[in-house]
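Reviewer 2 asked us to include a model.

Predict the structure of this chain.
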Amino acid sequence: MIQRFASLALVLCVLALTATVSVHAQSQDATESPVTAQGSIGFALGVPTGAFNQNVENLGYGINAYIGAEFAGTPFGIGLDFSFFTFGRSTRNVPFSETVGGAVRVDVVTTSSIVQPHLVFRMQPDEGVVRPYLEGLFGFKYLFTDTRVQDERREREEIASSRNFDDFTLSGGAGAGADIRLLHAPPNAETPFRGIYLNIGFQYVLGREAEYLYVSEGYDPDNPDIRRSTTNMIVPSIGISMQF
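Predicted model (structure tokens):
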């Protein structure tokens, strides 16, 4: 299921970028393009709040990415925001099978994660050394727990994997931040980028109730700890933003 969501988000991002770049190219002889594109990617934290914080007890670590279209002559834009966080992790070193006993051992890694794509409506000035913004978000959260078996000497060599638990819930919220200019392309420069910025953002994302596994060191797959609560989070992020 998560592969479908990720694939859909990727396709929408590519289509949005292709459309905005195409419009910009067709309008390059005009004084101003009617639509331009921007995007950002960076490191983000998922900070649970309320009942979610009481149940999870961990910060989420992951990424936040955004791609959107800006409408010339207005401060308005629309885009897609995508976040991924890992909230819990457990690693157990066990015999590969009863046949070989302890002679061959593998790592069994269980992770609890959240993916949250959102449609974004943003207000932000098109120009400036510092470009503050406000945004509204609406989308969903997909919470899931995976277990994989991997070679203990080669951590990236996966032998087998399984999805242990998942759930889906609607979410929405608001955010604010600023793009601080690092590099500005001069007029008529032969570059796809109009500007490169340091992006600092903050989102408060409300999530409806969902069920999820509590995962920490000492996790017992034979006695899973299933919890339920709202899934509210604060999401601070820092990264790089680009105007096309």
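Helices lie at 2-26, 50-56. The two ends are 32 Å apart (CA to CA). We have added this to the supplementary material.
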